[in-house]
Amino acid sequence: MAAVDVEAAVKELRNTYSSGKTKSYEWRISQLEALLKIVTHHENEIVEAVHSDLCKPQTETSFQEIFSVASSCKLALKELRRWMKPQKVKTGMLTFPSSGEIVPEPLGVVLVISTWNYPFLIAVDPVIGAIAAGNAVVLKPSEVAPATSALLSKLLGEYLDTSAVKVIEGAVRETTELLAQKWDKIMYTGNGRVARIVLAAAAKHLTPVILELGGKCPAVVDANINLKVTARRIISGKWGCNNGQTCISPDYILTTKEYAPKVVDALAAELEKFYGKDPLGSNDLSRIVNIHHFDRLEKLMDDEKVSGKIVHGGQRDKTNLKIAPTILLDVEEDSLIMNEEIFGPLLPIVTVNKIEDSFGAINAKGKPLAAYLFTNDKTLKEEFVRSVSAGAIAINETALHFMEVGLPFGGVGESGMGSYHGKFSFDAFSHKKAVLRRGFGGEVSARYPPYAPWKLQLLKALVKGNIIEILRALLGW
Amino acid sequence: LTLDPLIGAISAGNTVVIKPSELAPACSSLLSSTIPLYLDNKAVKIVEGGSDIAQELLQQQWDKIFFTGSPRVGRIVMSAAAKHLTPVTLELGGKCPVILDSYSGSDLKSAVKRIAGGKWGPCAGQACIGIDYLLVQQKLAPVLIESLKRCIKRFYGDNVQNLQSICRIVNKNHFDRICNLLEEPGVAASIIYGGSLDRENLMIEPTILLDPPLDAQIMTEEIFGPLLPIITLDKIEESIDFINARPKPLAIYAFTNDKKLKDRILQETSSGSVTFNDTIIQFICDALPFGGVGQSGFGRYHGKYSFDTFSHEKGVLHRSFFPELEPRYPPWNDFKLEFIRLAYNFDYVGLLLHLLGLRRLFIPNRAR
């Protein structure tokens, strides 16, 4: 797509936005209903497209992407009127008499840059928030998932108001052209390297940004727990989420030296139940997205520091871009696999002497998008929540916090900034305008020049809110 | 503007470096010498200096940067922050307009006091939420101007050598900048009050201009000084389009009792805040977030918003090991998919009926 098309598209959206169309409740509802229709009537096509891009099992696509989007649409449809309502605030003595409120309004024209691992969900979920908040939107799906990108372009083009919601497909060139435009907000999901480029481009126009990045999400496994359920939940969050290619998948495990063999055995047993003896032949595992990532993951596995530490799996099929669930035990801190986000089906286990030592090990790395702890020890839970900084924490679970709309979903530090999901999506794409209403009663002449000591005394008393002092100032005592 | 964000940062539990403005050297020095006497030096540090120190500070990795200042420097700060993926709050400025609807008598007097107080009161116009310019209906302009003149004389005096209760311009650079605004063709001719300058003492008389050229710098840049352009319109409703044709300001002040106009201003314009029938005072209302939108910045503070701005809101999910749901795990089959679909829809009746065919749980999916 030539540069002029991008400019023209954005100009059209600005005109549409200026007309006020996207601000109306009715328009927002109509678009959310259209999105809901897409997921209701086109589930099979979406499943096909995502399978084509990632070999993702139907259940994963339906469960994690399609139902999630449907659920988001329904929530927004149900709550939108409440979300749009101004919030009254209590104004104090200093501005008496007055009334105050916070009025949510759209930011304007926003850009959503999506990614390839949940190519439908991560494209549409932010768009739901942007539309609910009354903005015009450009969606740039990931070119690394081309079938889904094409489908999004087709379906959103058919069902949504294209004068206000556009899908612009493309790769680096188109993304660069998009980033050169002026936006009122940009949301980017992806990696830290491109995030810096997005943020630098946004800085030129003072555009606020949400960055949903990743990190090495640790899972700490204590002793004296239900190890079978723990193993199943770890597997579900790791290999059950796009075969580990997920920002909130447990990246590595921390457990005590003595407990580690039990963890390995439990994981191995459940892995076999889930994916059979030949996981490369299982239909229930996504493939690696492309040869570049396949090679990257092979390099991590073949690193001489860890290649001897594989205790489960390790099988690979380059032709079909498949890697089996692989567990490595006792990897060293300075190995490649422990110094970058794995984003694949390799699970290193790092052992510590005492389980509490794992907290320091986690905090020594960049803040992850999520941190997980499996324990029945109340003190350990409290200490974990208190001392480990991450986008989110889940206790005795992995990844599932994603579905809890009451919790903000976002990172901190290297794992990103800003958050969304549920009402947080609406808020992310809104400006909360402060409004103060006054009349001419209750005039305090002390605020005007010429200034005098008694005026200062009265203003001081007003700021303190101390009735006695106010009276004294007024009476000149 | 130095201590207020500091309060937020400390209450949220952070360690802080403050870089006060070098353009206010006495305050910078006072803060630098006083704060270490009272606060924990290991956690709160003051670094004084100019733009070279600021550049050095910006090279470091911070967990948050809070900047108050101009959009130009705001861009520099945000670009530096981008290298470390540091979130920022930018409190910038803009041309904050006053919309004055038809008031008369004592209401007009009160409005004029608040307008004068909101223009020349805050640092002689050198304030981000200070009034920049005023919009009024043409036929009301004469009465307004007379009232404003009387008010200015009462508040500040009428001789630039003897001005009372008003700040000077901060330095020669800004003094010259403001003088240049007056020297553009058409602008000087539009001065209807004031205009006197005292370069030695860096004082500029409160100055009113009537309908200066709209493409002059005084109407395209934030004035940040004691010059008040009055722009006349045929109908006061035109103020909405006028404001929307310009970057979003930090504040809009609207003096009106017309509910319809109030609603239109709220719905159709965008600004950090809107205040009806007063100026500046929204700043001291802690229940209201203080921050900009668009060119006037992003992020907010004051009251609890200060605490929030320096905090990360961490989502925490607690689960127990029981109950466990089989359909959550592979191997996948149609039964499990249907179960999940029904669960997502909270279709409890459907779930129950589905579960009655329990045996199908263990049959793996064959065809896709």
TrEMBL record, chain B:
InterPro entries, A to Z: Ald_DH/histidinol_DH, Ald_DH_C, Ald_DH_N, Aldehyde_DH_dom, Aldehyde_DH_NAD(P)
Domain Aldehyde dehydrogenase: 6-314
Any single GO BP term: aldehyde metabolic process
Single GO MF descriptor: aldehyde dehydrogenase (NAD+) activity
GO cellular component: cytoplasm
Keywords: Oxidoreductase
Coiled coil region boundaries: none
Family note: Belongs to the aldehyde dehydrogenase family.
Protein name in UniProt: Aldehyde dehydrogenase domain-containing protein
Species whose genome carries this gene: Erythranthe guttata (Yellow monkey flower)
